[in-house]
Amino acid sequence: MIVKNESATIERCLSSIKNIVDEVIIVDTGSSDNTKNICRKFTDKIYDFKWIDDFSAARNFSFSKATKDYILWLDADDILLSDDIKKFEVMKKSFDISLDSVTMNYNVGFDEYDNITLSYRRNRLVKASRNFKWIGFVHEYLEVYGNIFNSDISITHKKVNYKPNRNIEIYETKLKEGVHFSLRDILYYGNELYEHKRYIEAIQYYSKFLESNEGWSEDKIRVCNNICDYYLSINKPEESRKYIFKSFEYGNPRAEGCCRIGFSFLNENKLYQAIFWYETALKLEKPKNSLGFFNEACWTWLPHLQLCVCYDKLGNHKLAYYHNEMASKFRPNDKHILFNKKYFQNMNI
After folding, report:
1. pTM of the model
2. What residue stretches are annotated with the Glycosyltransferase 2-like domain (predicted)?
């Protein structure tokens, strides 16, 4: 782990994994709180690393200190829940040492009912002897290849301290220094601009990324979704749909894209077109073991709730009721779904 001023979360993280790992290595990049004192409850392998605005440098240093056959990496606001700890323990008992990497789900978004709303896969447990390296000074990634196993274990991300300006400040410092941006840097700087609502600048960088005809297809799909959302926000539905259709060039249609198209038509009160796309979302099969980003709502309850709206507007209250009931299976306490239930009860449906 690499850490800095993580006193709010580090004990929770280390407590969750203390019985499933054989050593804990902490690299501190300049804490001014009691992070290191907390870590000492779990390990004496604590190292200092001078922060140089380069996450990969710090992570590669941390990997260099590992002495066991495999390395599990985590952030301070990550935890393993009890079910995932059990799965990890089972995996260890019959572990295949020919594996170079084990991927795990990374659950990073949650709704008010603690349902997962955003998840993706990451290479989490890697063979030390392969000397895999981290790449990128921000939004770093671990370059992994070889024999990879996709496990059913999940890492749960429970962020407490959000540092909204840290990454974009690093990027803009690098720009001023004249540092060459790789295609991946162009993408992630675009993401930072987007998150900071600097949309026009973000789209300029996103366009560079898409026009390169290089890069990972999952990143291209996500970029198209982001640009679509921007055009939806400024009431340009036709422009928004162009980018979802473009995303279909990079992979099979996804429920996320179909829901966006459906929403664009719903906003225009083009109900039959909206219905077509929401029903299409429900028919799709979610890709298995993909490393891409997935919004669980689009694959479960959201199309049903939107179809409820569409059919109700068309006067087909029985179908509207059916889809509201289907949505309630995923979110039984959702206030909108409960409101709809009462609405249909008053109609004696």
Report:
1. 0.89
2. 1-116
Q: Compute the C-alpha angle 154/226/113, nearest 5°.
A: 40
Check if the beta carbon of residue 125 is closer than 8 Å to that of residue 70: yes
Model pLDDT for residues 265-280, shown as the tens digit of each residue: 999 999 999 999 999 9
List domains and CATH numbers for the chain: 2-157 (3.90.550.10)
Residue 258 confidence (pLDDT): 98
Residues 6+ apart with CB under 8 A from 210: 220, 223, 224, 246
Helices (H), the chain: 10-17, 35-39, 55-64, 82-93, 166-176, 183-195, 199-211, 217-233, 237-247, 255-267, 271-283, 296-299, 302-313, 317-328, 335-346
Q: Residue 215's pLDDT band (boundaries 50, 70, 90)?
A: very high
Instruction: Decide: 227 and 203 in contact? Cβ < 8 Å.
Output: yes
Cα 300-343-262 angle, rounded to 5 deg:
40
